[in-house]
Amino acid sequence: MSTLANRxxxxxxxxxxxxxxxxxxxxxxxxxxxAQTSSHAVSDTQDEFKVMGSSxxxxxxxxxxxxxxxxxIGRASDVNPHTILHAIARPRRKDGPLHRDPVxxxxxxxxxxxxxxxxxxxxSMRGTLQSCLRSDGTPRPATSAQQVATANKQCTPIxxxxxxxxxxxxxxxxxxxxxxxxxxxxxxxxxxxxxxxxHGDLNIHSGVGxxxxxxLADLETIWGHCIVNLLEIPKSELKxxxxxxxxxxxxxxxxxxxxxxxxxxxxxxxxxxxxQDHVAATFGAGLxxxxxxxxxxxxxxxxCVEDALSQRATRIRLDYGGSDITQSFHYLLQRAGFPYKECxxxxxxxxxxxxxxxxxxxxxxxxxxxxxxxxxxVERPGVPTLRFHVKVGDExxxxxxxxxxxxxxxxxxxxKRGQGQANASGDPEDPHDANYLRETSRRxxxxxxxxxxxxxxxxxxxxxxxxxxxxxxxxxxxxSLAADATPDDQPQQQLLYSLDQAILHSIERCCELFFExxxxxxxxxxxKASDEMKRRMYSCILLVxxxxxxxxLSTWLHNRLLLQIPFQFRPEQTEIIVGPKEMDPSMxxxxxxxxxxxxESGQELWIRPAEWKKIGVRLLRERAPFYW
Length: 628
What we know:
Distance between the termini: 6 Å
Region (Disordered): 1-46, 415-474
Pfam families: Actin
Protein name: Actin-related protein 8
Family: Belongs to the actin family.
Shape: globular
Number of helices: 19
InterPro entries: Actin (IPR004000), ATPase_NBD (IPR043129)
């Protein structure tokens, strides 16, 4: 990241906050003014768009926020983005292998010990709910699985008319199916189904369509289809448009390089820049500093953001999310005599049904207790619909409570331990990559130590220089090596954190210094600043993502955190923000990226095709709004 870009970060953040606070009806005027000003402020941008015969307005900016399950794409001038299933289905080649990525993370067969552990954890959670009080102070009546099963014994579905839904066959498509239509791909036609993103990263695997080139080709097809059909922008006109790509807070540098090439070279945008999702979320919420928690479909990520910078040491990603909650919910429904016995989460339409029931009924509001009515319709193409009226009890709370009792996510089997930003790997196109900087830093430290030792030896006696100089040399070597192994360059310790533990761990690493026990007095101001930053983060926690929509989640998280925040960092008030300015939590990051793209302060971040072709990945070191 360039010094110039770094210097403008604070002004970018302040501009974003002021713009986010503007009423919706006035944003278009402000964005247009910002774009008009920027055309005079950045000469090369002005010249480029003169050649293109257009001016830089929000209508010429395309915001792309790809997720593991959904893609959100739209113009910066749109109130809300288009949201589609981020998947593509292609007809299987003759005699070729079949590959289908599931809509939900699949469950695994548990051993007896693990199954007993999961059941004991759910039973413990039921006991916790039974001991809770409602908001009026009265005891909260709990429900058992047996009670729910008894209530559903007499439940029979009501048969309706024949469904008008139709499956998509090979004869209906030329080459591919995109978006929600993937759910209706005819199983007999054997489509290969691919989700280009999994757990927040490109879905690289050894199966069909799992190579880097195949995944990028899928992304080009999906994004290009949405641009042409949803945004109604011809591909030949994309050279007059610019794209903002929202990326995960923990990123793979190789993947980012390929994605920039995809936008500029293959799709043909006239410019682009990358923005981390947590930073974009603070822009969308109008916050200068916050601990951002993103609850996605397949991952949960936490980091601390201040002045438009995500603190690298605080980033942590956990590979569980809404999909794991859905599978836990189905497991609980089965234990409670779920009347829809034929439900199969691996079937795309059943997976979508379970997700809708979870999003519509699951909550963490202790005032809602006892048996509740849950209504849903099972619809299959060509057969009569079935309408169910079932009773569900505390299962509606137990499923989202898995966020605080992550042992139950053993149902989906995968390793869900915390991950941090990995060390930068070398890149042959970047001569000043992390490996080069690390080696040159060590050499500079070593030369400085040798010079200091020689200077001390010439000024003092041999005995004093041996005692003092040798001791000083030892101290400096330790500090030097510690600087080389700062937490910014090391992955997080891999542990399975619950949601509250992940937040505490992230904030605890704010401005973490390895020389806290150093004898040097100059360290003290940094330590005081670190403590102050931790208090700011504990005072403002922003929940975004589709998994943050459970009613009562913020209250439950608030109560858990208050019991664990260290006394010396406890703020006057801890505010947990969900859906700022009445926005959908899943769209906050997209909205923030739209706001930032229109700011005058952000115009120097754009990367143009000619520059990318000539300079390559080194541009990301200079232009990226995060430390490359």
